[in-house]
Design a protein that fits this description.
The chain is mostly helical. The chain folds into 2 domains: 106 residues, Orthogonal Bundle (DNA polymerase, domain 1), CATH 1.10.150; 198 residues, hpI Integrase, Chain A (Orthogonal Bundle), CATH 1.10.443.10. A 3-stranded antiparallel β-sheet has the order 1-2-3, with no helix packed on it. Helix 5 runs antiparallel to helix 6, helix 8 runs antiparallel to helix 10 and helix 13 runs antiparallel to helix 14.
Length: 348
């Protein structure tokens, strides 16, 4: 057999360093996850780099083969200084890195051991019940159903046409949030052509790049139709196919006569402005676009008592998320508590 020459040996591919493997992993995350997830994972791996250095392993020079499952333990211990939710997110990032290294055959990893170490050394996230002022949301929705209540200019020089368009849009937008469970960015991303008016639903690409069906109530659809009727001239002069136009558009000086889609920031501002108008400035911040999602899930549970139905309509991937709302919908518990404690006091 012909011996390998020095040239052949030098041309062999060098193994990746731990830092290089991390960079490749983050490149993959960047392509498949949201920007916020990408930044969180990057922060997690920066912390993991420091943990490696504390354990006499320099990521920039140590080959990926030096990575062992044992290094998960000091990472998990360090993350106790963070909130439980952050701890879980950062451990998920590190776990994903180990899975990537193993899948790419950069080095052999015992995935079962990684999972056991994380489970044994991390805190279990506690259940946090969603907090939102349901009665105030009901009051707000009652107020906005009368569109004349919303005909309030934002400034003295605001165009009367924009005031009217905003009034109809805001009514449609708030009723849609309350009756569909849309996340604010999902609602803002809707196009006119997304809605099936006969079936009263829309097919969207939601969280996690998953296709989903969202159903509309008659009152939400009627409010949307009223709004689009007011927008008919603007849409007709846009020179674009109606189906491609945003369902909820901007109506401000910056948009002018163009039909531009609302951004999530605009959606949040609508909620702030109408909450301040109808409920008072002290309620601003206590009701957000996501509060309407909480309201939606709780309404489904109160009306059906069906946890699985609520999960499907809210598009929760994990039923444990839906279970956080169950205590809010159990009117029988409230009634029983009153009968046991309050009624007893009144009788004595």
């Amino acid at each position: 057999m012909k011996p390998m020459s020095d040239t052949t040996l030098s041309s062999e591919k060098k193994p990746l360093t731990i830092s290089e493997a991390m960079s490749k992993y983050l490149d993959m995350v960047r392509l498949s996850r949201s920007k916020h997830t990408m930044l969180a994972y990057k922060n997690a791996l920066n912390i993991f780099r420091e943990i490696l250095r504390e354990n006499s392993l320099e990521p920039a020079s140590a080959p990926i083969g030096a990575l062992t499952e044992d290094l998960v333990s000091p990472m998990a211990e360090h993350l106790k200084i963070f909130a439980s939710a952050t701890e879980q997110l950062y451990l998920q990032a590190v776990k994903g890195f180990y899975e990537y290294v193993d899948a790419e055959r950069l080095t052999e990893i015992n995935q079962s051991r990684v999972r056991v170490l994380i489970r044994q050394r991390s805190r279990r996230p506690g259940i946090r019940f969603p907090q939102f002022p349901a009665d105030d949301i009901e009051t707000l929705l009652d107020k906005v159903q009368a569109v004349e209540n919303l005909l309030v200019p934002l400034s003295e020089d605001e165009d009367a046409v924009n005031v009217k368009l905003r009034a109809y849009r805001d009514r449609a937008f708030l009723l849609t949030l309350a009756d569909t469970g849309f996340r604010v960015h999902e609602a803002c991303g809707l196009r006119r052509g997304d809605i099936d008016w006969n079936e009263q639903r829309a097919i969207i690409i939601g969280k996690g790049d998953k296709q989903a069906v969202v159903r509309f109530t008659s009152r939400a659809l009627q409010a949307i139709k009223d709004y689009l009727a007011q927008r008919a001239a603007l849409d007709g002069n846009s020179g674009r196919q109606l189906s491609s136009l945003p369902l909820f558009a901007r109506h401000d000086k910056g948009a002018g006569k163009k039909v531009k889609p609302m951004t999530p920031t605009t959606g949040r501002n609508i909620v702030k402005e109408r909450v301040a108008q109808f409920l008072g400035k002290e309620m601003v911040g206590k009701i957000t676009p996501h509060s309407f999602r909480h309201y939606f899930v709780t309404t489904v549970l109160r009306g059906s008592g069906n946890l699985k139905l609520a999960q499907e309509l809210a598009r929760h991937s994990n039923i444990q998320v839906t279970q956080r709302y169950a205590h809010l919908s159990n009117d029988e518990l409230d009634k029983a508590y009153y009968e046991i404690f309050e009624h007893k006091k009144e009788s004595s």
